């Protein structure tokens, strides 16, 4: 009987040791692979090119010249299309999927037009011509990053250089004059960018800009007689393709 009890005790102890060994053994689990996250933060510089649409307006406020056809309150509005192209420079800050930035742009435009006055005045021979030739912006940007994609909106200050001219070459009363003014205004826009590498970024952007009214004196050689207009680019719309180079900012690993 004693031998049987000893054998049973030995068997029980062996079973407990085996169970403890089983509890101590844990299966091996591989660590999750890191997820590559595109880093939008940092300084960038680049260029853009596309199309622009300008709505121009000028209304006469005073006319004491012999050659001018328009009386106060008379004027024209015209739409011109052309090419826009220039450069951008900026800096982005990134917090998780949110991206904030500041950007400045300067662009040349080729939006212009001309109007023959066949509506107002007795002579009906004034030819007006205008052009908006370059503009600049300083804006803030805010967007959402989805890895290599950035969807953003922007808004801030805009300014444009604008010229208005008139010419009357039909006798008996002839004359001409021109004036160039800088117009301040505001701009809003939206765009999409894609990081094709850690440094190179392509994108598309649409912007809408509106500007203040300025006074244009077109009397030319007829001065001190006056031929004066309130004129402005009512708005400029543009759609451009962008290419930027971002300095530094490698792809970040996130677990």
Describe this protein's structure:
With 255 residues, this protein is mostly beta strands. The chain has a domain at 37-72 and 87-123 and 175-241. It contains 1 helix and 11 strands, in the order αβββββββββββ. The chain has one helix spanning 2-24, and strands at residues 35-37, 42-63, 75-95, 98-116, 127-146, 149-168, 175-195, 200-211, 214-217, 227-246, 252-254. The strands form 2 sheets. An 8-stranded antiparallel β-barrel has the order 2-3-4-5-6-7-8-10. A hairpin with a 2-residue loop joins strand 3 (75-95) and strand 4 (98-116). The chain is elongated, with a radius of gyration of 35 Å. It starts with a helix and ends with a strand. Mean pLDDT is 88; it is low at 4-13 and 15-21.
Give the N-to-C terminal Cα separation.
Answer: 63 Å
Order of helices and strands: HEEEEEEEEEEE
Radius of gyration: 35 Å
Q: Structural class of the secondary structure composition?
A: mainly beta
Runs in which pLDDT lies below 50 for 5 or more consecutive residues are 4-13, 15-21
Summed up, what is this model?
With 255 residues, the protein is mainly β. The chain contains 1 helix and 11 strands, in the order H-E-E-E-E-E-E-E-E-E-E-E. It has one helix at residues 2-24; strands at residues 35-37, 42-63, 75-95, 98-116, 127-146, 149-168, 175-195, 200-211, 214-217, 227-246, 252-254.
Notable traits:
single chain, 255 residues, mainly beta, eight-stranded antiparallel barrel, two-stranded antiparallel sheet, 1 helix, 11 strands, 9% helix, 65% strand, elongated
């Amino acid at each position: 009987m004693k031998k049987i009890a000893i054998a049973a005790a030995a068997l029980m102890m062996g079973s407990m040791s085996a169970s403890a060994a089983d509890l101590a053994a844990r299966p091996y689990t591989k660590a999750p692979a890191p997820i590559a996250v595109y880093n939008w933060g940092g300084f960038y510089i680049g260029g853009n090119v596309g199309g622009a649409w300008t709505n121009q307006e000028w209304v006469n406020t005073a006319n004491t010249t012999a050659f001018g056809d328009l009386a106060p309150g008379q004027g024209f509005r015209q739409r011109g299309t052309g090419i826009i192209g220039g450069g951008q420079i900026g800096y982005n800050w990134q917090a998780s999927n949110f991206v904030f930035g500041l950007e400045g742009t300067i662009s040349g435009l080729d939006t212009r037009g001309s109007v023959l006055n066949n509506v107002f005045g007795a002579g009906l021979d004034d030819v007006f011509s205008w052009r908006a030739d370059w503009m600049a912006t300083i804006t803030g940007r805010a967007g959402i990053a989805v890895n290599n994609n950035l969807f953003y909106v922007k808004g801030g200050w805009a300014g444009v250089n604008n010229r208005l001219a008139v010419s009357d070459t039909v006798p008996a009363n002839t004359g001409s004059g021109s004036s160039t003014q800088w117009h301040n205004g505001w701009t809003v826009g939206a765009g999409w960018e894609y990081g094709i590498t850690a440094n190179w970024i392509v994108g598309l952007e649409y912007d809408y800009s509106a500007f203040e009214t300025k006074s244009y004196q077109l009397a030319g050689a007829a001065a001190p007689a006056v031929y004066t207009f309130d004129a402005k680019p009512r708005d400029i719309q543009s759609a451009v393709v962008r290419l930027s180079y971002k300095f530094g900012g490698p792809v970040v690993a996130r677990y």
